[in-house]
Amino acid sequence: MPRKKNGGLAGLVEPDRVHRSVYADPAIFEREMDHIFHKTWIYAGHESQVPKPGDYYTVQIGRQPMIMVRNKDRSISVLYNRCPHRGAMLCGDRHGNAGKAFICSYHGWQFETDGQVRSIPLPQGYEGTRFSTDNPDCNIKRAARVGSYRGFVFVSLAEDGETLEEFLGDAKVAFDDMCDRAPKGEVEVVPTCFRVVQKSNWKIFLENQLDALHPSITHESAGRAAQIVEKDIAKRSGKAPLDYHYLSAFTTPLSKWDQVQTVNYPNGHCILQGYMGLRPTDPDTLEYEKVMRKHYGKDRTEEILSVNIHHVLLYPGLSVQSPLQQLRAVRPLSVDRTLTEIWHFRLKGAPEAIYRRALGYYNLVNSPATMVNADDLENFWKCHQGLASDGGDWVSFHRNAGQDDDDEGVIKSRFGTSEAPMRNQFRAWSDMMAGA
Predict the structure, then answer these.
(1) Domains and CATH numbers, the chain
(2) Can you give the C-alpha Rg of the chain in angstroms?
(3) Does pLDDT of 192 surpass 90?
(4) pLDDT band at 4 (very low <50, low <70, confident <90, very high)
(5) Is the pLDDT of residue 78 over 60?
(6) What SS3 class is residue 11?
(7) Residues 79, 124 contacting (CB under 8 angstroms)
(8) Helix (H, G, I), strand (E, B) or coil at 341
(9) Which end of the chain, N or C, is less packed with Cβ atoms under 10 Å?
(10) What is the pLDDT of residues 330-385, one digit of tens each?
(11) Mean pLDDT of the chain
């Protein structure tokens, strides 16, 4: 195996291919936890998940169980889910309200929602020791850095590094596009989400998100079945429900996919644009546009609704579909197990029909129950099984290599099926993994 330096990783990533061990080696996975998920900015949740003071939501950041909580001053803290006394988790439920304090169920220590120790039972027992309410070690440890952009909360467990907005760069369009489509300029989370444990390495999922070659192959059977029904309904009634187009779009010819473009930014972020452009002229859409013009004016409304972004991948752990108000958060569990959380959002101020339309895509395409998701999960599992074999040492990312355009560090593909996004992700992976 080509290992020489940088923690034994040199030679595993080349400009147009990567060694299979980056997916299958448990030691490399552990290094990823330390060097990527415990250092860079990772999505924690949305501010609307904790609307009231004391509301909390638990989340996994890398290996670390954390608590996102709303404080009484309306600020948000992210704490390690661990009592500093004997190490018990403070919150065993996924979400709830702590009231005025977190109380450890083991020995009754109490903490303010920002982590400050509030009271210790029988404090005289600690007299003469270094453990007292004056010692910062008695507080719940806080995440080193917490940042929020348009209501989307990120955490970095590293003390130093670029700011959240510097990290997001131009890829923050994912959140701008989603929030701008709301007449009130904000979104709010739908309280529950789909959770799927994939039997594959986390990087396989991310590589698939902007892979424009696979949809018409992997999902052809689901798309074809929907297309047959769609055409039959249209023939009998003159028009088929839009829901069918969500699936029949997977029959798009490969030549059409090659006409879209990916834009690949520093830090591994990527955008797939020019795909669906869903802007029908039915009464529900026209009513929505009327509401948008009331809030934004004609020109700004047209500018917002003309944005044609299908997918934004925020490396290393977030896949955002802004026109459809949903995102998938990636939570690696082990070298061959990955949890994805699939969240949906409401556009504040938009008509209910627009929410229902986006919800249809959420249920038909991204839910665990769909054939589309099942198709992908099978491929992810097959990839991981194949990469663990001795059938070959390298994974190819040669497609259109050397044919992309470099615009001052932003890589723009000339072809939609270029594997530029995968190459871009591994450039970021190499940089992060080589860090101290």
Answers:
(1) 42-156 (2.102.10.10), 169-212+258-434 (3.90.380.10)
(2) 23
(3) no
(4) very low
(5) yes
(6) coil
(7) no
(8) strand
(9) C
(10) 999 999 999 999 999 999 999 999 999 899 888 988 888 889 999 999 999 999 99
(11) 93
> Over 80: is that where the pLDDT of 277 sits?
no
Full strand arrangement of the beta sheet holding 117-119: 102-103, 110-111, 117-119
Burial class (CB in 10 A: 0-12, 13-18, 19+), 173: buried
Q: Amino acid identity of 189?
A: V
Question: Encoding tokens for residue 132?
Answer: 């007292």
Cis bond before residue 316 (omega within 30° of 0): yes
CA distance 24 to 336: 7
| Torsion of the alpha carbons at 194, 199, 202 and 205, rounded to the nearest 10 | -70
- CA 286/CA 203 separation, integer angstroms: 40
132-136, 153-157, 304-308, 317-321: which has the minimum mean pLDDT? 132-136
Q: Which residues, including other chains, have CB under 8 Å from residue 342's CB and lie 6 or more apart?
A: 193, 194, 195, 196, 326, 327, 328, 362, 366, 367
Q: Residue 419 phi/psi, 5° resolution?
A: -90, 30
Inter-residue contact 309 to 323 (CB < 8 Å): yes
**Residue 28 C-beta-side C-alpha neighbours within 13 Å:** 24
Cα 298 to the center of its chain, rounded Å: 32
Provide the 8-state DSSP code for 142: B
